[in-house]
Specification:
By secondary structure, the chain is α/β, with parallel strands linked by helices. The protein folds into 2 domains: about 260 residues, Aldehyde Dehydrogenase, Chain A, domain 1 (3-Layer(aba) Sandwich); about 180 residues, Aldehyde Dehydrogenase, Chain A, domain 2, CATH 3.40.309. About 40% of the residues lie in helices and about 20% in strands. The strands form 6 sheets. The chain has a 7-stranded mixed sheet, sandwiched between helices. Strands 9-8-7-10-11 form a 5-stranded parallel sheet, with helices on both faces. The chain has a 3-stranded antiparallel sheet with strand order 5-6-21. Helix 6 links the parallel strand 8 and strand 9. It is globular.
Amino acid sequence: MQAQNFVGGTWKSGSGEKILNYNPATREPVSEANSSSEQDVQEAVVKAGAAFELWRKKPAPLRGEYLYQIGMLLKERKQRIARLISLEVGKTKVEAEGEVQEAIDMAFYMAGEGRRMFGHTIPSELPDKWTMSAREPVGIIGAISAFNFPVAVPSWKILPSLILGNTVVWKPSPETPATATEFTRCFEDAGLPPGVFNLILGDAQPGQFLVEEPRVAHISFTGSTETGKVVYESAAKQLKRVSLELGGKNAIIVLKDANLELAAEGIVWAAFGTSGQRCTAASRVIIEEGIYDQLLQRILQITSQLNIGDVRDENVDVGPLINENSIEKVEAYIKRAVEENIKVHCGGKRLEGLPGHFFAPTVLGPVDPTSPLAKEEIFGPVLCLIKAQGLDEAIKINNSVSYGLSTAVFTRNVNHAFTGIKGIDTGIVYVNHGTTGAEIQLPFGGTKDTGNGMREAGQAALDAFSEWKTIYIDYSDKLQRAQIDTDLL
């Protein structure tokens, strides 16, 4: 498939070098695209800027009608888009379809915000004076997304931006141009005015151009913490607004009063779904002493039943990693585990005999909580088991890493559940469920090195992509000075 940029309502090839994209399960070609030059990015920004003045004036309920149409088109094309996700990313059919459903849900949810974009009315301290606040768009949004959720995560950025009256220039991962193209066609076919939504393809350089472009008011970036820091620093030089959604080192705490069958099932799904390539993937399991061996055996039993292979086979549970670099990174961590005398209970190696980038689901343990394996994001199918004496120590171990995205607690004791909720320092907490499975009507994001405090999805997304305007209307027909003329009545 030949993928192209979509700029100002027109499809056109980028003017940079050609990028070839391959199916990570088979290494067969899937798509090709030309990377975008600085001039291509500037053209998209100019088109977005011209469209902004008209789009922001369109009443929000009417903007919502476009989003409803986008949602309907996504729903009609769900299977087609999911198939491209599977081909480009290596997700199983059920995961790919779930991802598209997330974008459908976001489209309908944010369309409704066109009639619910509430401000505030607040009493004034002075007579015959009316005060209120309202949301305003910020301008051009530069959205930069990663390969692992090529539809869901962009929908968290693009759809809230549009309903608020912003225009968007989106730079997806170079690994997913075909998926990005098919997703963009839903916006085109919904009839959005030219320039409201723009797609630029390419590697990291077009993203850098977008970050540095002074006419872009806000950068929303999803990717690694290292790259996120570079984006933040570059944008800060222009006092540009930034939303960062970065890495995670998520843990599942399992207490001795937990349903261990449920815990093991939730752990395996959270650890090995999408081959561990989720920012919310479970990378650590912190187990209360006394149930370690029992839980380990149940995890190993379920893991041994996973089918690994080409996701075009609907019986496959775990697909490939995205590329050879990812395989090599995981191998380096396994080598470190061996050097630290950590037992490899299963997996620990790439799968031979398969043409793609496959690595066996791996369980390590016990792992010292201070080991790099227990602290650094691996972003692959590797699960580290850690022992803890009780809930207090488990919370301490959970909070000891530099990330703070998602944590789960398995317990049947309500006191333990609420103690965990209160003490855990992450943006998302699950009780009796794994660390993955965020719903679009709730804020998504984390603490510490997981981001910069901004949130995506839910009502919080409106705060990320809008400015508050405070309005004072004085109809007293005289000068009234706030904080001074307080004795007028």
